[in-house]
Write a sequence for this structure.
């Protein structure tokens, strides 16, 4: 879903869609990430779906690990770390992210995970059952995590994977 980007996202996406026939491009005016996810959800025909933030990329094994773990949970997430740590501030950010990753992993083990940040995989039926993402919040990852927990669903944490954020 292109949420009204003003960079080359739409052009690059269209080029990928020409190369890979299973890609569908959805273009909408800028209405926010939650709206974009809800819009995409209308076209999902699979048991699971996911998203990744535009400023992030995944480790190679993340999709297969996600599918392995989603059978035990209703949503799964992976630890995020900075893609570059060549400056002191980025090294400090990396330390912060790693500390958060440890606490999220522990939270997941005791059923207290409440956030679906940057990258997440969801069971499609669960998200449809709880009526998708709230489009009036700017913290959709926190809102969705809390919504899942409040409705009795579980969020898992995928070990040995990373989402690198720029």
């Amino acid at each position: 879903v292109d949420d009204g980007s003003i960079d080359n996202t739409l052009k690059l996406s269209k080029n990928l869609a020409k190369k890979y026939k299973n890609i569908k491009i959805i273009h909408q005016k800028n209405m926010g990430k939650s709206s974009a996810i809800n819009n995409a959800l209308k076209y999902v025909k699979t048991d699971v779906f996911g998203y990744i933030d535009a400023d992030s990329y995944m480790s190679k094994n993340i999709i297969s690990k996600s599918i392995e773990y989603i059978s035990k949970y209703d949503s799964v997430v992976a630890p995020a770390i900075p893609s570059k740590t060549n400056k002191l501030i980025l090294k400090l950010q990396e330390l912060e992210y790693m500390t958060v990753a440890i606490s999220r992993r522990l939270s997941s083990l005791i059923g207290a995970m409440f956030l679906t940040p940057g990258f997440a995989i969801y069971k499609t039926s669960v998200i449809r059952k709880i009526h998708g993402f709230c489009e009036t919040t700017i913290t959709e990852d926190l809102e969705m995590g809390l919504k899942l927990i409040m409705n009795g669903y579980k969020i898992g944490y995928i070990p040995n994977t990373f989402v690198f954020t720029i």
Observations:
- The chain has a mean pLDDT of 85.
- The first strand starts at residue 2 and ends at 3.
- The two ends are 20 Å apart (CA to CA).
